[in-house]
Design brief:
Blueprint lengths: L1 H8 L17 H9 L7 H16 L3 H16 L4 H15 L3 H14 L4 H13 L3 H14 L4 H13 L3 H14 L4 H18 L1
Helix pairs in contact: 1-7, 1-9, 3-4, 5-6, 6-7, 7-8, 7-9, 8-9, 9-10, 10-11
Amino acid sequence: MPAMRFFALTSAALPLALIFLTSSFPAAAAKKDVIVEQADAHNAPKQHLDQLFSQLKRERDPEKASGIANEIRMEWNDSGSATVNLLMQWADKAIEEKRNPAALDFLDEAIALKPDYAESWNRRATLNFVMGNYRKSMSDIERVLDLEPRHFGALSGMAAILSNSGNDQLTLKAWERFLDIYPAERTAQEQANTLAEKLAGNRT
């Protein structure tokens, strides 16, 4: 799933997310689980994320930065709701098996149950991109960035869509936003440098 991996981290060596094997999903129990959300449950994870993003911004070694980015993605993968986590697992499994309509159903349900969970929007953006629904994908990306402006995966997806549309200037801006968050990512560096040189050449 190269496009899926690209959205997640823009690195071909890393998967979009771990694909979990799950037991059957009890729909009725799911809605009960989501009703009981803990308002302050994300305070500690948010502090940890802030620390990780500070480390990622300072780190210049690509391998060390990749490890930090992996930790960030692990934090993103936990919604704080067992029900939503299960829906995400089911979506990943459906994507792996190329059952895209089923995956969309799971992601739609996850978003409906916990609309402030950025990763469900990001996963749906990725799937819409793979299916060629670029307008829907961009809409989901914008929602991801509203919820988590530092989401480098969503920014790489934005850059991919803008690149497909041929808008080099906006594509470069997306990569520059990415690199402000994750400066050691080599693919992003290469993309930004190539675009900057191309645009500079067009101006001469």
